[in-house]
Amino acid sequence: MSISEDNLLGSITLYPNPTTGLLLVESMLHIEKMEVFDVMGRVVLSSGEANVIDLAFLPTGVYLVKIETANGV
């Protein structure tokens, strides 16, 4: 069973955006896994249970973050 995107709206916050280094993650849900993808769809970073992602080593660009919680993705 999963929850709809409408139910996730507002329950996860990523900041600052844009960032030059640390990306902070705030969530009322338990985060099990996070993945950062480049625009070509390649995974450039995978993280377990964390509320901070260090992106300082990545070149400047646009990245997507996929967050998995116990309730869904």
The strand count comes to: 6
β-strand percent reads 35-45%
Helices and strands, in order, run as HEEEEEE
Low-pLDDT runs: none
Mean pLDDT: 85
Helix percentage: under 10%
Class from helix and strand fractions:
mainly beta
Shape: globular
Count up the helices: 1
End-to-end distance, in Å? 12 Å
Biggest sheet, strands in spatial order?
A: 1-2-5
The Rg value, from CA coordinates, equals 12 Å
Tell me the major beta sheet.
3 strands, antiparallel
Molecular structure report:
The chain has 73 residues and is mainly beta. The protein contains 1 helix and 6 strands, in the order H-E-E-E-E-E-E. The chain has one helix at residues 5-8; strands at 12-15, 22-27, 31-37, 43-47, 52-54, 64-69. A 3-stranded antiparallel beta sheet has the order 1-2-5, with no helix packed on it. A 3-stranded antiparallel beta sheet has the order 4-3-6, with no helix packed on it. Strand 1 (12-15) and strand 2 (22-27) form a beta hairpin. The protein is globular and about 30 Å long.
Task: Give the gist of this structure.
With 73 residues, this protein is mainly beta. Helices cover 5% and strands 42% of the residues.
Fold topology:
Elements: H1 5-8, E1 12-15, E2 22-27, E3 31-37, E4 43-47, E5 52-54, E6 64-69
Antiparallel strand pairs: 1-2, 2-5, 3-4, 3-6
List keywords for this structure.
73 residues; single chain; 1 helix; three-stranded antiparallel sheet; globular; mainly beta
